[in-house]
Write a structure and sequence with these properties.
6-stranded mixed sheet, globular, 7-stranded mixed sheet, about 400 residues, alpha/beta, 18 strands
């Protein structure tokens, strides 16, 4: 039975663990967090990813945990709604929107039921030695402080955008150049819900390329977002510092005193325990594998939240990688090459930011005049409702293999 270690118990790693476990692999998943609880924003499941979770028998569980968002409304400084877009073909809100922790919990439960899949929380990979027949991995346990050495047939790194495991696998030149900052900063967290937070998401924008956003979650909690579409050295330094208080303080300085309910969100942010802040980036690599080690999901080809494809790409990538390993379980190098050959064209389709990367700047004006023009256009489009006459072209098809 081939033995596989997966670094990262996120969406991609858990889906891969499930499919490998179902097909006779011995799987160990190490996760640096001490519990299975995950923080995260609202995400959607669409296209090939929907078919994959359906094949896992999980679609009904996922549908039972959706946010039931009805669409998105745009408001001005005085909280007046000036545009409304319903869920569906507008491409702004989707029919299957779910909090990332809820989706992760459904996927984890499915994989954890398999007797040959083991999850180890509070563990990280410290060192890797590859040879012709296996991978020797040093695994550190945070709770005990002990480091053990184990042998595996292959290693999969799926521990996120800033993966430390990727740094152990790739040559130095790739490590230094693979992360491409989009010069946009975003924070998300939850705040106490108010009745008017449902059923629509609400977006407020201010001059200076600042946006404040809420999305309904539960009766008691609302998911909140702050985005700043300008490069700011102090925000970059705050992210690099990993000092959550510094990150919150800097964001509060930038957003405090704007219109709508911005001050409510700032207060909620300062009190939030599930705060997450990131400098939005993509990962672009010339090669996704090295010997018996391979990269998966955001670790290999993060498209960024701006594309709305991160979760779907993670699920699809895990499924494709699993299908190749099942086919060539005794030849992981060949399986990795076929995984990249088949999936890279799809990644190349969904990863680009529209308008040559300038779309975030276009939809987040810097000046009051630009914001007035944008609001006028949104008001007209909302009244015209052109999506009624446009076919749904958002999903990019993929011919899924059988597993």
């Amino acid at each position: 039975m081939p033995r596989v270690i997966i670094s990262g118990a996120g969406i991609a790693g858990t889906v891969l663990a499930y499919w490998l476990g179902k097909n006779g692999f011995q799987v160990v998943v190490v996760e640096r967090s001490l519990s299975s609880t995950q923080y995260g924003q609202i995400i959607d499941v669409e296209g090939p990813a929907q078919e994959i979770v359906t094949r896992m028998g999980l679609m009904e569980d996922i549908k039972s945990k959706v946010t039931h968002e009805a669409g998105i409304r745009f408001v001005d400084d005085s909280s007046q709604e000036f545009a409304l877009f319903p869920v569906g073909r507008t491409g702004i809100s989707n029919e299957i929107e779910i909090m990332r922790p809820a989706l992760a919990a459904v996927l984890f439960a499915a994989a954890d039921k398999l007797p040959n899949v083991e999850f180890r929380n509070g563990c990280t990979i410290q060192a890797i030695q590859q040879n012709a027949s296996d991978v020797i991995v040093d695994i550190h346990n945070k709770a005990s402080g002990a480091t053990s050495q184990e042998h595996f047939d292959m290693l999969v790194a799926s521990d996120g955008l800033r993966s430390p495991t990727r740094d152990l696998i790739l040559p130095i030149s790739d490590k230094e150049s693979c992360l491409k900052s989009l010069k946009i900063f975003a924070a998300f967290f939850s705040i106490p819900a108010k009745p008017h937070d449902r059923p629509y998401a609400t977006l407020y924008q201010a001059p200076g390329r600042r946006a404040v956003f809420t999305k309904p979650w539960t009766e008691h909690e609302t998911s909140a977002y702050l985005t700043y579409c300008k490069y700011d050295q102090s925000l970059h330094d705050a992210r690099e510092s990993r000092d959550v208080n510094l990150q919150k303080t800097r964001l509060a300085t930038i957003f405090q005193g704007l219109g709508w309910e911005t001050d409510r969100l700032i207060k909620g942010m300062m009190e939030a325990e599930n705060f997450y802040f990131e400098e939005i980036s993509q990962v672009k690599l010339n090669k996704w594998s090295q010997g018996r080690c391979v990269l998966l999901g955001d670790t290999a080809y993060c498209p960024s939240p701006l594309t709305g494809q991160g979760t779907n790409l993670a699920i699809l990538g895990a499924y494709v990688l699993a299908s190749k390993l099942v086919k060539d379980r005794d030849n992981p190098t060949k399986a990795f090459e076929e995984y990249e050959r088949d999936l890279r064209p799809y990644v190349n389709k969904v990863q680009p930011i529209p308008l040559g990367g300038y779309l975030p700047l276009l939809i987040n004006p810097d000046t009051s005049w630009g914001l007035w023009i944008q609001r006028s256009i949104l008001r007209f489009v909302s009244w015209l409702q052109p999506w009624k006459y446009i076919p749904d072209l958002k999903n990019v098809p993929y011919n899924l293999p059988d597993l």
